[in-house]
Amino acid sequence: MSQEPSAAQQAIGDVTPKLADLTDQVLFGDVWERPGLSPRDRSLVTVAALIALYRSDQLGFHLKLALDNGLTREELSEAITHLAFYAGWPNAMGAAGQLKAILADAE
C-alpha cells in the first residue's frame, strides 16, 4: 500500500526534494508536534505571523489548517481584525479575502 504524497511533496518535491523532506520531517514532524503549544495555538501563531509579514502565498494553507486544528471562523475573523491595527490594513484585508474564499469553498 503506497502512501499519499504530503502537501509539501506535491507542491515542491519535484523541484526541491530536500526542502519538502525538511518540511515534512522537521517542521511538521517535530516542531509542530512539540508539547509546549497545542496544534490550535500553533496555528493561531502561524496565521498571525503570516498575516503580519504579508506571506499570502502560505496563508491559505495555514488558514485551512487552523480550521482543521480547531480554530473557529469567528476566532480567525477576530484575529484578522485585531491584526489590522498591528500588522497593517492591507495585510488584514488580504487575509480576510483569503478566509472568505476558504469558507465559501467549504460550504
A few lines on this structure:
By secondary structure, this protein is mainly alpha-helical.
Task: Explain what this protein looks like in three dimensions.
With 107 residues, the protein is an all-alpha fold. It is 72% helix and 0% strand. The chain is built from 6 helices and no strands. The longest helix is centred in the C-terminal third of the chain and has 18 residues, at 89-106. The chain is globular and about 40 Å long. The protein starts with 6 loop residues before the first helix and ends with a helix. 17% of the residues are buried. The model has no long low-confidence stretch (mean pLDDT 96).
Main beta sheet strand tally, sense and closure:
none
Class computed from helices, strands and strand pairing: mainly alpha
Shape: globular
Residue fraction in strands: under 5%
Multimeric organization:
single chain
Q: Please give the share of residues in helix.
A: over 70%
Mean pLDDT: 96
What is the N-to-C order of secondary-structure elements (H for helix, E for strand)? Answer: HHHHHH
